[in-house]
Amino acid sequence: MFDAIADWINSKTAFVLALLLAFAGLTLGLGHAAATLAGNHGAAAKRGADGGICGEVQAWFGPQASLANLNEFLTQYGAIVVYGPNENGAWQMHFPALSLDDALQATSRANGVVRVAANPQCRA
Question: What is the residue-averaged pLDDT of the chain?
Answer without folding.
Answer: 79
